[in-house]
Write a structure and sequence with these properties.
The protein has helices at 2-9, 12-46, 59-62, 72-78, 84-117, 127-140; strands at residues 57-58, 81-82. It has 141 residues and is mainly alpha-helical. It starts with a helix and ends with a helix.
């Protein structure tokens, strides 16, 4: 049983999948940083200092039970909170990741099409044909 597991775990597909998951996690962190630290501040500057990460609705404040704190993190400590700013940020992350993956797949498909369209080198004729052609040429002489 241990031998079978070792064969399964060390197959190329399993190792490739593990590497893909690790790289995907790192890529996700890069995209999170790009959206949170680059894109959202630019959008905030364009919209007059709007900070999406602190956009929320404290449900208690809707009922008149409490006033809403200044930050989303503090609002979550107070009680049930609808963090629509966080939702917008995560949605933007998804759109960016989906677009980048679309471009990667599109590029790979283009390369595959170019490889398929490239003319293949003519195959060498079998040895018998080469010998027969040589005999024919000798007979012509």
């Amino acid at each position: 049983m241990l031998k079978e597991f070792k064969e399964f775990a060390l197959k190329g597909n399993v190792v490739d999948l593990a590497i893909g998951v690790i790289i995907g996690g790192a890529f996700g962190k890069i995209v999170d940083s790009m959206v949170g630290d680059v894109i959202m501040p630019i959008i905030g500057a364009i919209t007059g200092g709007l900070d999406f990460s602190n956009k929320f609705v404290l449900l208690k404040s809707l009922l008149g039970d409490a006033s809403a704190p200044a930050t989303y993190a503090k609002a979550k400590e107070v009680g049930a909170t609808l963090g629509y700013g966080q939702f917008l940020t995560v949605t933007l992350n998804f759109i960016i990741i989906a677009f980048v993956l679309f471009l990667v797949v599109k590029g790979m498909n283009r390369l595959k099409r170019q490889e398929a369209a490239a003319p293949a080198a003519p195959a060498e004729p079998p040895r018998q044909e080469v010998l027969l052609e040589e005999i024919r040429d000798l007979l012509k002489k």
